[in-house]
Write a structure and sequence with these properties.
CATH topology of the largest domain: Arc Repressor Mutant, subunit A
Order of helices and strands: HHHHHHHHEEE
Structural class: mainly alpha
Strand content: 5-15%
Keywords: Signal
Protein name: Spore cortex-lytic enzyme
GO molecular function, one term: hydrolase activity
Helix content: 40-55%
Shape: elongated
Organism: Pacificibacter marinus
Oligomer: single chain
Strand order of the largest sheet: 1-3-2
Length: about 230
């Protein structure tokens, strides 16, 4: 080989080596990147999450303002539990209670207390209110105060509360008593504790001795009334 030929061969070899060397690193790097992304589950999951969030964002943008407001209004906050209603069975306590009012059931309860127990002590009046509300809570009786109070009305002396079927007109003449009993009715309907009669659903004055009282457990004696609970099966 001549010197000239050897020089040409060396230059050609160097040139080829330089050309391959210039592309070897990027090709390897490109192969590494392709391999890592196609086999990395985090990369694939991230792409899916991004696509999902983009879709949700576009959907929310498409909603009208009124629709969003309606959706937000449908989520009502959970009401905070109310503190228990505290009562004291005295006239002084009732004197400090604000004037009461209410709907039909409040009026029915106030009327029942007026005609059934306005001559009783305050404690006795609360006890009669307990009986009426205990009946409302029982599946054996109607489920509203007015329905409980008027049960059997129309059949003389065969109703549940005598004043509703004794043939006499119900006339409110003692306004102060009505206002006081209205407060009791309101307190009881608002959740005052029923702790006086131990779940009683019946009562009668001590001046009488009804036959059913022999079979019913007596739970309390308050003022001029005895109180009873229905026999349990």
């Amino acid at each position: 080989m001549t010197l000239k030929t050897a020089i040409k061969t060396t230059v050609k070899t160097a040139a080829v080596g330089a050309f391959l060397g210039a592309f070897s690193v990027p090709l390897v790097a490109q192969a590494d990147v392709t391999l890592s992304t196609s086999n990395d589950p985090n990369f694939v999951l991230g792409a899916q999450v991004t696509e999902l969030l983009t879709h949700e964002r576009e959907s929310l943008r498409a909603l009208e303002t009124d629709t969003v407001a309606q959706m937000l209004a449908s989520f009502k906050p959970v009401p905070k539990p109310q503190p228990p209603v505290k009562v004291d069975y005295t006239r002084d306590f009732l004197a400090d209670v604000s004037a009461a009012s209410g709907g039909e059931n409040w009026e029915c309860l106030t009327q029942a207390l007026y005609f059934e127990a306005r001559g009783e002590s305050v404690k006795g009046q609360f006890a009669v209110a307990e009986v009426i509300l205990n009946r409302v809570s029982s599946p054996k009786f109607p489920n509203s105060v007015c329905a409980v109070v008027t049960q059997g009305t129309g059949k003389k002396f065969r109703c549940q509360f005598t004043y509703t079927c004794d043939g006499r007109a119900e006339v409110i003449t003692e306004k102060a008593a009505w206002r006081r009993l209205g407060k009791i009715a309101r307190l009881m309907m608002d959740g005052a504790p029923r702790r006086l009669t131990e779940g009683a659903t019946h009562y009668h004055t001590k001046a009488v001795n009804p036959r059913w009282a022999r079979a019913f457990p007596r739970t309390a004696s308050i003022g001029v009334h005895y109180f009873y609970r229905m026999p349990r099966a």
